[in-house]
Specification:
This protein is α/β, with parallel strands linked by helices and 249 residues long. Helices cover 36% and strands 24% of the residues.
């Protein structure tokens, strides 16, 4: 497993590098964003771990990541502090997961394993219409249809559905959903998330007919899984833009 790690905001980055190598990950450590931009990234990179240096904000680092071709590799952000704000900033700027300073080595490796074992591509373009099976998800109209019938989703419920579909067959953490949609990791926001997800589940009607299953991953988040016709399964995802189409394989 090839892991690219950059940044030096905390001594934890060095400690985590050692943990990853002990766990037999192939780790390339780049001290700065300048090194990242000069480094040749290939399709073998399966995870990017970002830890900004003192003069870089989380948003700056994730903005640079978006400009670099990472072959769909997920991004794990290492916050320099213990507050929620840095994690929220990173998640809102494109990180797929974020951990605070002080996380134990065991917890860190567990997050890494989950991210590298989820092999499906992440759709990062926010102007694409997603089509597969009976579902069409249009981010511009903020609408989901199933077999041509529009689902009754509020703006927050659509945002939840978008995160689930663009991370199909991957676990989407509570932290990511709360940061990107609620802008808070506090307990009231988590209760609201659960309530809204219940409504999304009702509207999607997961099961044999739709070809998807929406699973609750205990104490972690949610996972939308495809088990329908392999010929229609996302890999599969068809991205449609105004004026043209492109297939993501």
């Amino acid at each position: 497993m090839k892991v690219l790690m950059f940044g030096s905001a905390q001594c934890d980055s060095q400690r985590f590098c050692g943990l990853l190598r002990e766990a037999r990950y192939d780790v390339t450590h780049l001290p700065s964003v300048d090194d990242l931009c000069a480094h040749h990234l290939d399709g073998e990179v399966q995870l990017v771990i970002a830890s900004p240096s003192g003069h870089e904000s989380g948003g700056d680092v994730l903005h640079i990541l978006k400009r670099v071709e990472l072959a769909g590799a997920p991004v794990l952000f290492l916050a320099a502090g213990t507050s929620d704000s840095e994690c929220i900033t990173a998640l809102c700027h494109g990180a797929d997961d974020a951990v605070r300073a002080g996380i134990t080595g065991g917890q860190f490796l567990k997050r890494v394993r989950r991210m590298v074992e989820d092999r499906r591509p992440i759709v990062r373009r926010e102007d694409a219409v997603l089509r597969f099976g009976p579902y069409v998800i249009d981010p511009l109209l903020r609408r989901v249809t199933c077999a041509g019938v529009p689902l009754q989703l509020s703006p927050r419920e659509f945002a939840l559905a978008w995160q689930l579909f663009t991370h199909l067959n991957r676990t989407v953490t509570n932290e990511l959903l709360l940061a990107r949609i609620w802008g808070s990791l506090e307990a009231p926001a988590l209760r609201s998330l659960r309530s809204h997800m219940h409504r999304v589940r009702q509207e999607l009607q997961p099961g044999l007919a739709s070809g998807v299953m929406l699973r609750t991953v205990y104490a972690t988040g949610y996972r939308l899984e495809w088990f329908g016709d392999p010929l229609l399964s996302p890999g599969w995802l068809e991205l449609c833009q105004v004026g043209g189409e492109a297939a993501v394989k």
